[in-house]
Amino acid sequence: MEEITLKLGERSYTVYIDYSHLERLPELMRNVISFERVLVVTNTTVGELYAEQLLDVLNTGGYTPELLILPDGERYKDITSLRKIYDFLIENNFPRQSTIIALGGGVIGDIAGFAAATYMRGINFIQVPTTLLAMVDASVGGKVAINHPLGKNLIGAFYQPRLVFINLEFLKTLPEEELRCGYAEVIKYGIIRDADFFEYLEDRTHDVLALDKKALQKVVATSCRIKADIVQQDEREADIRAILNYGHTVGHAIESLTRYCVYKHGEAVAIGMVAAARIGARLEMIDNAEVERIWQIIRMAGLPYRFKHAEPEDIVERITKDKKVLGHKVRYVLPRRIGVVEIVSDVSPALVIEVLKEMKE
Hints:
Elements: E1 2-6, E2 13-18, H1 25-30, E3 37-43, H2 44-60, E4 64-70, H3 79-91, E5 99-104, H4 106-118, E6 124-129, H5 132-138, E7 143-148, E8 151-158, E9 163-167, H6 176-193, H7 195-209, H8 213-233, H9 248-257, H10 265-282, H11 288-300, H12 312-319, E10 332-337, E11 340-344, H13 349-359
Parallel strand pairs: 2-9, 3-4, 3-5, 5-6, 6-9
Antiparallel strand pairs: 1-2, 7-8, 10-11
Helix pairs in contact: 3-4, 5-6, 5-8, 6-7, 6-8, 6-10, 7-8, 9-10, 9-12, 10-11, 10-13, 12-13
């Protein structure tokens, strides 16, 4: 088992990375949570695969778990699903000492985490991610939220889990397209922080997507370490943490404009990463050879690098409603070179539209 600790004072916690051994979870929970009442929140897809296994593990470990299953899909990360969690907690008299465990991908982690952050002004929260995207990104760092029709994650909070348990064996049942979507976030870490890691990904992309154990362990652990390091420096995104949004500014706008039904999150981020690289090239921040490497690895991973079903002008307009806008200025995360990015606030909307027009199918 690999352990990565986020040092955040009284909000510190550990990310545990293991291959199988879900039965270790109750023992790890005992270090931080003593009260036995637990609500497992999952979705219809993951629930069918793993809910019974997790409930059995918790029961054997001395906890009293109950289960709530939500519909599967980004479009259900909304106030209606959030209300279902609140209703279940209130109707079943869950006290403040209770724990919510999110069993699922980024959608379940976000919505269950936001419920935990706000129910009785905050109850215990544990992440048990089941997708690559959630393992390397969404489950670590404490961002929890729901979507609004006008924008992604506009209603949310910073709320750290008590622990994160990553069971890599869950990825055996993950559909290939979901695995590729998670890999977009892995690529992001190389671009924003670690050129050597990016080079490793160029060589080992096919191994990771084939679920090679050693390659998988390395990319998940490296991604979590990079994110942990950034979050420790800037927990609430006042400064450096914003670089984790590389590819997300354009990506989120495309997701919301297409009503979360056309592109999965990782696919939208992949498009956004290519857009950000090309914007950086137009501003002479990064040379075209580096942009080509970014495009090539995204293509190699089977991710989209062009888009349809959205107009460039609408994307730029939707970006102005993004939560990352500061002082009426859109903050774009743009690459200087692979491994180094910069936050830029004076990008011309016309330039962005021009780049997006070239990327539209």
